[in-house]
Amino acid sequence: MNTPINDAVKEHLSHISYHTPSNDGSGMGLLTDNYDVTELSYTDNIIYRRDIIAESEAEVAKVFGSDNVLFSTSGSTTLINIAMHALSDDEPFLVYENAHGSVFNSMRMMGVKAYVSRGMDIIEAIKETGAKRVVVTSPNYFGKMVPADTFDRIKKETDARVMWDCAHGSHFRFSNLFPKWDPSCADIVIHSLHKTAPTMTSGAIMHVSNRYIERAKTWFSMIHTTSPSYPILMSIETGVKYLLEKGEKVYEKAVADVEAFKDTMKNTAFHVYTNDDPTRVSIESAFEGSLVSSYLEHNGIYPEMTYGNRVVLIVNAFNSDKLGLVAKYLSELELDKLFEDYQIEYKKKKIKHSGLKAGKDFVGIKELTFYRNFDKVELDDAIGRIAYKEVGLYPPGVPDIYSGDLISAEDILYLKEHIDSIFGLLDGKMLVAAE
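The chain above was modelled as a monomer; its predicted structure follows.
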């Protein structure tokens, strides 16, 4: 048989990575068949952890200062689903600003009453909706944090419980150059370790307060796979240990390398900026980010994502010293020559997404409507129908269309323009509420 996955991965083994996973490209030396074991007498059981997994989770909880930590080898998406179910002892839910698509999928599966608020004060939104559960995502894909007092205000001014999706902030604990880390800010916190820590893909952890640990463990046993990857479990330990021992030093160098990169790129066709997370680098130009990314990939450099006119790099301990190469290629770029083959396509495009937020802008509160049944229709036939589920660009996985939205012709045009990076479709077709 043909092996297209094997062929593609092996062909590109030498590329420079500014994407997840944030390890050294070898899984920190854990990619070996000898480590791929199962639940045995000496390996514990992740569903009913009593031995080495429980011991390791306790060690990691000490490192982060958390009440409890649960490991996942199914990624943070699974943990978000578990966390949302653990917090489903009351409703309604309020999603503050942006959230990953998995948050909305969880609410749909639970059938809870739910709202999204954007562009307004969080306390005002909680009071107006009567929210008992709040989902906060911080930082976002661009490294931007919510206002520093957000969690304190929720705790002091409301009785709402909080799920903090901190998927992109697992490295904050390990350097004073990053935003402050405080696990007590929320009842449950999600870290997608592989995004910014030297952990293998799908390695994630969930910090759980004592108040919710029993519910979290119960839902974990019902949702998480019963067959965890032990190389990923090992990489969680290895990645956290590495950052505990070397984090301050390696991130001091990484941040310095980023600053040097920004200085080098001054007076070029590209503007480089960082946000609250100094290792999340966004490169802006007058061109579609996908075109700039294609040029970098042609030279063996693979960014994390593109969004509108931006290219985003995740800088870590293993790639910061290669930023000089990124600067070299971009500085030498002859824009007219490079994009000669793209001009017809480019002239048809409009740069719709710029700045630090993702998803379609609106100000106020939107109530979500979850339907039991759906129809699958061609994109053009979805105009005037009601969206069954969230649809948007991936990455970052933030919705542009929400459950219950009336789908417009402009929405469909937007989807067609970005059809290669859309989440929420099924076989290229739109899911709409059944008539």
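DSSP finds 14 helices and 19 strands in the chain.
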